[in-house]
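Morning run. Coffee first, then this:
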Amino acid sequence: MSLRLAVTFASCVLLAGQSAVAASALVNPGFEAADPLAVWKTWIYHDGKAPVVRLDTQEAKAGRQSLLVEATDPADVVLGQVAARDSTDTGGTIHVQTPEGATLARGPSPFGTSPWKEIQTAFRVPADGRAKIVLFFVGYGKGTGKVWFDDLRLERADGSGPETVRIFNEHLTRLPIDAKQGGQFIEPLCHLIPSLLAQQVANTSFEDDPPWKVAFKREIDRPHRPWYPDGAVHLASYAFDTNQPFNGRRSLRIELPAAHARAGISQDGFHLKAGLAYRLRLHLRSAGDVAVRATLHGGGGLAAEPVSLGKAGAAWQAAEATLCATRSLENSTLTLDFEGPGTLWLDRVCLIGEDAVLGLWRPDAVQAIRELRPGAIRFGGSALETYEWDRCLGSWDERAPFEQTYWGGIEENFVGVEEFVQLCRVVGAEPLICLRWSGKQPADAAAEVESFNGSAETPWGRRRAQNGHAESYGVKYWQIGNEVGGTAYDDSVRAFAEAMRRADTSIKMLSSFPSADTLKAGGGYLDYLCPHHYGCTDLLAMADNFAFLEDQIARFAGGKAVRIAVTEWNTTAGDWNLARATLQTLGNALSCARYHNLMHRHADAVQIAIRSNLIDSFGSGVILTGPGWLYCAPTYYAQQLYARAAGTHPLRILRHANTANLAFPWNLEEPDLSATRSADGRTLRVYGVNSTATEQTVQTRLAGFSEMVMSGAVQVLRDSEASPTAEVLNSRDDP
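And here it is:
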């Protein structure tokens, strides 16, 4: 096979605050330099003899020579360079990727023998003005033959004059936009769940806490709040004791042989509100006549009157006390100590303010979730494929912390699936439970469904009732596995679904990663196909996947109303360390808004979409918390605006762009528009996403509306300081 390509990259569309890259930003674009790879970095994937990359003076579209890639054995070859800002114009990019490799735009891939062809690719310049210009030898790992590249150009494309947009009083979809398109996501992942909790003690059971396996700002990701010896430490001895701990693998033992001396342990980092009572609960035992005391202090004095926890005996016993904060402190200290002589063992310590929602959750976090109006919240994620849900039931005293085998670290086990469902009910969201597939059988999945939805007469329903909740939770949405797929998975789906439906015939069944065989293999039991869309800035790729899934539904659903649930999505997932801060930017909010507009256009198919993640989670959370404070990322406010579209119908829009000699693809239109009308016909909403640095003037005409517009309001998500970049972020001190 041979293919000749003339590659011309044109038609820049701009992202907040940047102008287009000048043509001079590309180095050696016509391959006239003696060394063709002086600037172009090469990635080669081959099976057999390595491909050849060289200059060809016999075939040239412009100048003296072109670049030739030739493979005799199956291969893929990629060449790229990063285009950056020059001294006069700013912006940059092209296929086009970020320097980290995320796709921004893709040109067509013509196959077969052909003469020189010009390929035009429109793209939007990233806000940092840098992008990787990529030339592909395309073969999907199996390509052979020759490809020539020559005459690359970057040209700016400008619109001239206002655009006219007609909004028709015609439903674009049969079904309205569902509130669950604004769904959110939590999982047992490092500090994610603790970020939501009013429980303030770190390392409640004195367990060994392995390192986390991922990082954002590694130096501060993990709050450093150790227990440390306090008091007459020169007289006492401290050790972790693995002999008969209360729960978990070990307890803390303190030996104090001296009479009348006091020794114990302390932990810093407690946030206190004046006038609020805090409930302390812990477990202890002793050798000797030991009386235990608890104190909250800091800022040069007591923060609450010390309380006695009584005398400990030889057997483990629970002890509780209430400490009333006399003043507000951002960083106070909890001290547990006793007077010698004697030996004290401590285990499972927690401290929770009386304002905690359901006795567990931070009230400010609950309020922020409620105001986000997520529609649905998913309990899932990679951790679920090693998660044992039935070890996270019952009282907190009886639950042992466990190591996170996937993400690293310890999960304190205050939140199981039952607490998650209770949180969803409080904030008015539907719970979506992803259950474990790896290493499990259909009967295991059925037991979990029965635990939440079975009557109190069923075995698992009886256990739920014994734990204090006799009524069924009625959880509707159940997903079989997280990010698993392939033949073994597809072959198992029907058996899992049949067993789960025997536990509750009313539930809705969601797939994991859908292949071309998943829906067929489901035997009519599946209600949703569930992709994960990381990289949603590539709207064409997301639209292609929706089209694939819609085709699967049309072909294999057999008339059943199967829909799409995107059970995880964001602009990126795998960018760890500092690159992950992009998820906190205004630019990320704009990209997520465009994805919401795309989902509006596919409202007939896409009912559920779960953005990853809800809180903290190494920079991807839209809610961020610390001791006593909370603020939200720009994407939170974008999704809050889109939540208002729930129950409305998308409308047909006709655009007349005034851009000379260029037909913009829909995914690059500026502004990106979606219009919806409420079910009662009284409210028209127009969503416009402008990713450029300049104001976009749009002349709007309403077509087919019999009513007059009586009033209106405008809400704008933008940088409060009008910075000429979309890379701005919120912070605790500038929220």
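The domain at 2-149 is CATH 2.60.120 (Jelly Rolls). Good start to the day.
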